[in-house]
Amino acid sequence: MPDLATIGYEGCTIGAVVDALRESGTKLLIDVRAVPQSRKPGFSKRQLAAALDAAGIAYVHLQGLGTPKPGRDAVRAGHPERMETIYREHMASDRAQAELAQAKGLARERPACLLCFERSHTMCHRRLVAELIVAETGQPVLNLEAKLPG
């Protein structure tokens, strides 16, 4: 079974993220943002999908695995532990469970990477998504970090 990776794009360029994905052997990027838009060039859904396609990496957005607004607000306020509680409650929803099942299936098929914003997986809900996937699949998790500019 392939490894499951995670990556955050905070502070990075799209080129650096694509390079990190290619170097890790990622074949599918699973976007787990609730809102797949970004003020950071290259990271809004359509631009990101196009850059990945050009690099031979497939893209899927699973919005139901994103953090609800109160959870995102908690992280911005410096309370990732509150986000975790809010996120775990969110994951009980039918949509979240359906998309989690989809993510598990995709992660079994080919090397996949979960993408969200925060650079550190410890401050991001993608760590929780990865834990939920590997609880069933048992695959190893690699937490990637793209090179920062400069």
Could you explain how this protein is built, in words?
The structure is a single chain. This protein has 150 residues and is an alpha/beta fold. It is 45% helix and 14% strand. The chain has helices spanning 14-24, 45-54, 69-76, 80-90, 94-109, 126-137, and strands at residues 4-8, 28-31, 58-61, 112-116, 141-143. It has a five-stranded parallel β-sheet with strand order 3-2-4-1-5, with helices on both faces. Strand 2 (28-31), helix 2 and strand 3 form a beta-alpha-beta unit. The longest helix is centred in the last third of the chain and has 16 residues, at 94-109. The radius of gyration is 14 Å and the shape is globular. The N and C termini lie far apart (36 Å).
Distance between the termini: 36 Å
Round the mean pLDDT to the nearest integer and report it. Answer: 96
* Biggest β-sheet description: 5 strands, parallel
Specify the oligomeric state.
Answer: single chain
Layout of secondary structure:
Blueprint: E1 4-8, H1 14-24, E2 28-31, H2 45-54, E3 58-61, H3 69-76, H4 80-90, H5 94-109, E4 112-116, H6 126-137, E5 141-143
Parallel strand pairs: 1-4, 1-5, 2-3, 2-4
Helix pairs in contact: 3-4, 5-6
